[in-house]
Design brief:
The protein is an all-alpha fold. The chain has eight helices and no strands. The protein is globular, with a radius of gyration of 17 Å.
């Protein structure tokens, strides 16, 4: 069993890092703080608890049923990698240019699910990465990656105020920009691999 764990370690490391960069809990800290500004401590904790559970369940669902979803719509992995790569590239450019998500909804009843859980934690980029990881690395690696990332998400939201005080607004913004550059690089790699696989399979 130890040999199996060691053999999957490279794929697990790669998939965990990719998903963590896309979810980017540290870079989103200023947004989380801004969305819950003026809300009491207890209500804020409930909002973050709801957001973590919702995001985790959504990504876990795609980790378990990603193959069936692709098969149902007749989508090949190569096509999904290219489309997902383009989408991730757009997300990265938006973060670099705008600085993050612009959300007008301020309802305490809804912000735990939208926009914190979706699309900030489990948005199109995270879903794309989860499905591609499932197809390339297998279900066990994908599930472990999702669990590990959301453990970090839970810890980040649990201790968000002291973390924000340490990082400061400028530090959080810098982290978000660096993460956006890494997202762009991952997106380009998805597109390249998708195109290469399409050219190999083409008659």
């Amino acid at each position: 069993m130890m040999e199996n764990l060691l053999s999957m370690l490279p794929d697990l490391t790669k998939s965990f890092i990719s998903l963590f960069i896309i979810v980017d809990p540290f870079g989103n800290i200023p947004i989380f703080i801004g969305l819950t500004e003026g809300i009491s401590g207890d209500s804020r904790r409930r909002i973050f608890h709801t957001a973590t559970i919702t995001g985790f369940i959504l990504l876990l669902a795609f980790a378990l049923a990603g193959r069936e979803i692709l098969s149902f719509f007749g989508i090949t992995l190569q096509s999904f990698m290219i489309a997902g790569g383009i989408l991730l590239l757009i997300i990265a450019v938006r973060i670099l240019v705008i600085g993050g998500w612009e959300e007008k909804s301020r309802s305490p009843e809804s912000i735990g699910v939208v926009p914190i859980a979706v699309p900030l934690l489990a948005g199109p980029g995270a879903i794309t990465t989860t499905i591609i990881t499932l197809e390339t690395c297998g279900i066990l690696t994908t599930i472990i990656s999702v669990v590990l990332v959301f453990i970090i998400v839970w810890l980040t939201l649990r201790f968000i105020e002291p973390i924000y005080r340490v990082l400061g607004r400028s530090g959080s913004i810098v982290i978000a920009r660096v993460m956006a550059l890494l997202i762009a690089a991952i997106a380009v790699q998805f597109i390249i691999e998708g195109l290469e696989n399409l050219s190999i399979e083409a008659p």
